[in-house]
Amino acid sequence: MESRHPLDPLIAAADRALRAVFAPAHASRPVPGAPPDAANAASAGAPNAAGHTSASPSTANATGQSGAAPYTANVAAHTGASPGTASAAGHTASAADTADVCVALTEAQRRESAALMRVNHAGEVAAQALYHGQALVSRSPATREVLLKAAREEADHLAWCETRLKELGSRPSLLNPLWYCGSFAIGALAAAAGDRTSLGFVVETERQVEGHLDEHLARLPTGDTRSRAILNVMRADEIGHGAAAKMAGASELPAPVRVLMRHAARVMTTAAYWI
């Protein structure tokens, strides 16, 4: 077996850091919600996956099937596309589900959605940094794999939030390099205390992220079903990351550490909302 150079882990960590902060994000899964271009194609009478055309606008789910008519939103003026309605699983919602969201996003609502998605994008940058820092210092290959698997799914979230920000005519946080560096250091410090503590850090992080996402889902404009679909899938993934860490042997963090984590997260979310 070929031996690894002692610097290989550091080189790999640096590569992951540069990609997470500066390279365009790429997702391994489709963006939740009906893609705007698919909705446009349907409204133009373009063939769907089954080869049939649609005479009226409709949303498309992940398999390309058409569903309920999409809502009209001012976001189309910024993206050239009309978002559709979709559930967290990527399927179109029923008429009853969408009856109260067939409204236009005002400029104020678009700004609010963009600010919330910028916070979520910054959170995903920080999440990847935490897991990268923890993976670098972790002692067990099994723990390292749990962390890197979670980081790969966070990369999906990063790409989804980035896509949605572009659709909303906005940008990521200008402080993303700061969020990455700070979170990487925190992750490495947590892992230095041992794998069980490191996994406990994952459990607590994801518990707090779930709370942030619940708050954002409550604050999103009613008509922004595209962002809502993204956040719902992200929430399910975060719950899964916490459960996997718990099953891998996570230990409960002391209460003062949990409080400190909440305060640190609040600083980041508040700053990223505006900057």
Output the keywords.
275 residues, Ferritin, 63% helix
Could you characterize the architecture of this molecule?
Helices cover 63% and strands 0% of the residues. With 275 residues, the chain is mainly alpha-helical. It has helices at residues 8-22, 36-43, 76-79, 95-98, 107-137, 141-167, 176-192, 195-219, 225-247, 255-274. It has a domain at 12-27 and 107-274: Ferritin, core subunit, four-helix bundle (Ferritin). The chain starts with 7 loop residues before the first helix and ends with a helix.
Rg, please? 20 Å
Output the CATH class name of the domain at 12-27 and 107-274: Mainly Alpha
Low-confidence stretches: 38-103
CATH fold-level topology of the domain at 12-27 and 107-274? Ferritin
The helix content, as a percent range, equals: 55-70%
